[in-house]
Amino acid sequence: MRQHDEFAGKEPDDDILERAVNELRRPLRVNAALFDARVMDELLRTPTGLRERFESLVRPRTFRISPLVAFAAGLLFTVSIAGSVLYVLSSTPPARERTVARTVPGAPMVEFGFAAPHASSVALVGDFNNWDPKATPLRAASTGGVWSVEVPVPPGRHLYAFVVDGKVWRPDPAAPKATGEDFGEPNSALTVADPRGGR
Amino acid sequence: MLDGRVSPAVELSDAALVDIVLRGESEAYARLVARYRDRYARFALHMLGNREDAEEALQDAFVRAYRSLHRCGDPARFGSWLLAILANRCRTSGGRRARHERRFVSAEDRHYAIALDHPADASAWREEIGRALARLDPDQREAFLLKHVEELEYEQMSAITGAGVSALKMRVKRACERMRRSLTEGEDAPAR
Q1: Which of A18, A81, B57, B85 is the most exposed place for a label (fewest CB within 10 A)?
Q2: ipTM for this prediction
Q3: Structurally, how many domains does chain A consist of?
Q4: What residues of A are in contact with residue B123 (Cβ under 8 Å)?
Q5: Which residue of A30, A38, A46 is in closest CB contact with B38?
Q6: Residue A143: its chain B contacts at CB < 8 A?
Q7: CA-to-CA distance for A104 and A101, rounded, in angstroms?
Q8: Cβ–Cβ of A40/B27 closer than 8 Å?
Q9: Is residue B27 a contact partner of residue B1, using CB atoms and an 8 Å limit?
Q10: B121-192 and B11-100 share a CATH fold
């Protein structure tokens, strides 16, 4: 052990503090598979980027504007509302089609993770892939027993689950359970936010 | 995903791994977890005195670091940055723990990821060390562990804790004095 200033003047063999430090330096035995799976499971609990986007949207902000700017903004807002009402009343396409047209091309990517150190396969099933166990297999990380896959999921509320080893149906332990059950098995619920701020 | 695009046999630097994670390969973070898991588990255990809090703090530190990885100013020093997050997390947890009696668990429990692996005859000695650490002020315990167990330089400790070098030297000095006094009074040290 390196001789430190604090140990100076002591015979190393007799220094109880040095023996304590040596004991404290002993490596710990950590169950790597268990710990890594817990960490990676926690990390993958949050869909990629969505949390940050959501938090940035709902985070309170303080704006300082002059009275003139406030008046101009209010006028612009009033004109916009009036224009929107006139557009809705006069337009011929149904509202549903307009909503679809506003949707951003390409669904948001969502990362799903599931810790199963002893599984030989894990698949994602949900209403976005017709509950097909062959459609979306998860890939195993090189360590930790964590399986994951990133897939596009349209904005909205979805039900999903994992199929382990092709036969065992498991809900996502990191997500809220859905109130209803499909196929007699418990599912998890996921709400994907519209990247443009819609629901 | 690591397997396929990045060979597990390749020893990548912290900076390279951080860059890979930031480009969307979140599984690469598992390598950073593996790299710092054991060493920092030891620090958290010594800081907090029990496996339950240590595991929680360490897991939380890894998760916090992941979620704010884009704010890691110097990816080459990811380890120090992570240790700063962990130390801060231990201070928070230590504050909560201070309301309760600190525990030094020596029994095996399969549900814990952190195992205490030592011969039974050293158990009393380890518990005595644990009690001596618990008697230190949290700032002193942190400085003592960073200096003598993690073997950091004072400049590194200053960057991690935010305290000045002089203050850290004083904390280490006082910690050593109190530790030596506590351990001498305990007299549980095994003969060498």
Answers
A1: A81
A2: 0.80
A3: 1
A4: none
A5: A30
A6: 30-31, 34
A7: 8
A8: yes
A9: yes
A10: no
One-letter amino acid at A53 equals: R
In terms of pLDDT, which residue wins out, B161 or A51? B161
Q: Chain A residue closest to B51 (CA)?
A: A30
Give A25's contacts in chain B (Cβ within 8 Å): 149
From chain B, the residues in CB contact with A146 under 8 A are: 27, 30
Query: What CATH number is given to the structural domain containing A178?
Result: 2.60.40.10
- Tens of pLDDT, residue by residue over A49-81, are 444 444 444 444 444 445 665 566 566 665 555
Segment B65-101, tens digit of pLDDT: 998 998 898 999 999 999 999 999 998 876 545 544 4
Nearest chain B residue to A113 by CA distance is B27
Residues ≥6 apart with Cβ < 8 Å to A30: B37, B38, B41, B113, B114, B115
Given a contact cutoff of 8 angstroms between Cβ atoms, the answer to whether A171 and A188 are in contact is yes
What is the reported pTM? 0.55
Topology of domain B11-100, CATH: Rna Polymerase Sigma Factor; Chain: A (1.10.1740)
Tens digit of each residue's pLDDT (9 = 90 or more) over A2-13:
444 555 444 434
Q: Is residue A171 part of a domain?
A: yes
Nearest CA distance, B102 vs chain A (angstrom): 17
The chain A residue lying nearest B190, using CA atoms, is A19
What is B121-192's CATH number?
A: 1.10.10.10
Residue A23 resides in a domain: no
